[in-house]
Amino acid sequence: MAQGQIRKALSGYYYVEQDGELIQCRGRGVFRNRGEAPLVGDIVDYTKDGESDGYVMKIHPRKNELVRPPIANIDQAILVFSVKEPDFNTVLLDRFLVVLESFHIDPIICLTKTDLLAPGEQAALEAYIEDYRAIGYEVITTYKEDASLLERLQPFLEEKTTVLAGQSGVGKSTLLNTLLPDLQLKTGVISQSLGRGKHTTRHVELIEVCGGLLADTPGFSSFDFDTIEKEELTSCFPEFQRIAEGCKFRGCLHIKEPKCAVKAALETGEIKAYRYEHYEQFLQEILDRKPRY
């Protein structure tokens, strides 16, 4: 029995990497019986059957897993958001950040198309960038024909498993082409009527780049809060979580409770009003969710 990582899944085969070699494996029937399926990114035990074939015998516990793309054990996501065409959208960015926090995936915010900003719009964007950096998020800005982007991203990619996510039509495929030039993903064309991009989904593969692993397909383009409970939402806003320890009541939802430290921080400007408004909006969405049985 040997241990390796699934780097690619295709047509019922799992390609397990160990010491630079890919072993083409089938999954054991026992996984189907348990309703389990190996995922790209899984650490697995496998047995060899010949030189380059084998069987996946055991899936090790996962740090996290996503449905779209189907991938496990992700360290971080590069969140690709444009500042123009489509315009920068803090509600959508915060949705992505909340869901990534709930999966314990570190976000790196990558803002594209900064060359399209008018001079007056630049100051507003800088204020947002300062806000997100103050929370603790990495923020990278880029523009068309940005030759330095790969060099600036390299330190973040080393020894990490990374996925790309973000709005449609903001440059995820272009960024993937920059990071993985051999891939030649079809770059999405902005649909003028919808303001959204179009891209073709492919099988998922983890490819070595800059000393780490990168999923070769753009991930989810929208998020919901199906897996987040109302009590967990505070922990998905890092600046709320730090301050919430000062709330009088344990389990405070920071809406109507007395002596709420988060509401006090909102009054002083320590918590930004737009972040609190998004928290209220997301909490209401969770409260309105139909019960699951």
TrEMBL record:
Pfam family, one: RsgA_N
A GO BP annotation: ribosomal small subunit biogenesis
Co-factor remark: Binds 1 zinc ion per subunit.
Names of required cofactors: Zn(2+)
Keywords: Cytoplasm, GTP-binding, Hydrolase, Metal-binding, Nucleotide-binding, Ribosome biogenesis, RNA-binding, rRNA-binding, Zinc
GO molecular function: GTP binding; GTPase activity; metal ion binding; rRNA binding
Enzyme class: hydrolase
Residue span, CP-type G domain: 63-223
InterPro entries: G_CP_dom, NA-bd_OB-fold, P-loop_NTPase, Ribosome_biogen_GTPase_RsgA, RsgA_GTPase_dom, RsgA_N
Main location: cytoplasm
Binding site for GTP: 112-115, 166-174
Listed Gene3D superfamilies: Nucleic acid-binding proteins, P-loop containing nucleotide triphosphate hydrolases, Probable gtpase engc, domain 3
Binding site for Zn(2+): 247, 252, 254, 260
Domain EngC GTPase residue range list: 72-221
E.C. number(s) listed in UniProt: 3.6.1.-
Protein location: Cytoplasm
Coiled coil: none
Subunit annotation: Monomer. Associates with 30S ribosomal subunit, binds 16S rRNA.
Protein family according to the UniProt entry: Belongs to the TRAFAC class YlqF/YawG GTPase family. RsgA subfamily.
Protein name, UniProt field: Small ribosomal subunit biogenesis GTPase RsgA
Organism: Lysinibacillus odysseyi 34hs-1 = NBRC 100172
Gene: rsgA
